[in-house]
Amino acid sequence: MKPRLGAARLAALTLALAAPAWAQDDPRDPWEPFNRKVEAFNTAVDDAAFKPLAEGYRKVLPDPVRTGVGNFFGNLVDAWSVVNHLLQGKVVSAAQMTLRVASNTVFGLGGVLDPATEFGLEKQSEDLGQTLGHWGVPTGPYLVLPLLGPANVRDGVARPVDVYAVGLGAWGAEPAVAWGTSGLELVHLRSELLSATNLLDDIALDRYAFVRDAYLARRRNLVWDGNPPEEDDGDDAAVDEVPPEAPAVPASAASAAAPAETPASAASAPQ
What we know:
globular; two-stranded antiparallel sheet; 62% helix
């Protein structure tokens, strides 16, 4: 009987090791079956359209031209970041980003060049999702959006506003120009991710789980300005805690001084 028992245990262990990582339910991702279907759809569209366009774009346009395109759209993103810095009450960083946008617009040929970085005005990007997180709006479950990719409920609500705000349509451009430049921006952004996605395909055993975990970790880090508090094992409540205003208070000091931090206390935290 012992040999049979040992064989059964070995078989069970083999099945456990062979099971995919997503077999274990993740409390942050209760809609995983739906999300995986959307990701499969997004991957099919990307393989059929966006990736070939991005590869052609990268082959046709030389590096300096692509850099100028990226700088131009980055300048629009920086202008939207100014609004979000102000909405979060970050007056100093808002002023710094305003100087960055003004420098690149005036001295950088409308944002095609990036003299602001040489002036020491570094990019400090903020979006509406980060602003909502700053004021205590919970992240909600993980969500994969059609064509727009990984998000959570909070970012899913905010992202359409972000997309509109950084497009030329928000600046009064004609619809044809706005749609054309939005398409160019999409292709440019996809071209910048070619190397990363190729590497991801090579190293990730479960691409979906890898992207989900990386996205959630990155967004949490951004909301907390690079200094998120520690999470308890098995407890995702810390994801929805309210971040202090920048510069962030170290997590250890914050937890010692205010173990039960509230949105009001976070909003009034000293800078």
